[in-house]
Design goal:
single chain; alpha+beta; Aminopeptidase; four-stranded mixed beta sheet; 28% strand; globular; disordered N terminus; acyltransferase activity, transferring groups other than amino-acyl groups; Acyl_CoA_acyltransferase; GNAT_dom
Length: 123
């Protein structure tokens, strides 16, 4: 059922991204070693008024982690954000993903808050 025109359809927070920056690093020989994606968000916890840059995806193959590929990809995204006059960058990780939390901290991120997301189906 489609909403009536008088009922606004509100975007979910992760749908508020605007076109952003995508960076990829090739694997020696062939293939993809890792990537990062950056977007703009209207608001992010702990970042003040928006818009702010947001890391909406990041991955490096397990056998290539450690020498700085992920760091270099995020730094390229930071350059993209600075070129647009943004002063902050946000990211998130699941509470149980200790490796991601450690990687964020190694990149200079500080924890803004922890939240619990809820869901309920509509019948």
């Amino acid at each position: 059922m489609r909403p009536k025109r008088s009922q606004p359809v509100l975007p979910r927070p992760r749908e508020r991204h605007h076109p952003g920056c995508r960076q990829a690093r090739g694997r020696p020989g062939a293939g993809l070693a890792g990537f990062t994606g950056m977007g703009l968000r209207d608001h992010a916890e702990g970042c003040g008024p928006g818009p702010v840059a947001d890391v909406d995806g990041r991955y490096v193959d397990a056998d290539l982690r450690g020498p700085g590929i992920g760091r270099d990809l995020v730094r390229a995204g930071e350059d993209w954000a600075r070129a647009r006059g943004l002063s902050g960058i946000a990211s998130d990780a699941l509470v149980a993903n200790e490796a991601s939390i450690a990687a964020h901290r190694a990149l200079g991120f500080t924890e803004a808050e922890r939240i619990v997301r809820f869901r309920r189906g509509l019948s």
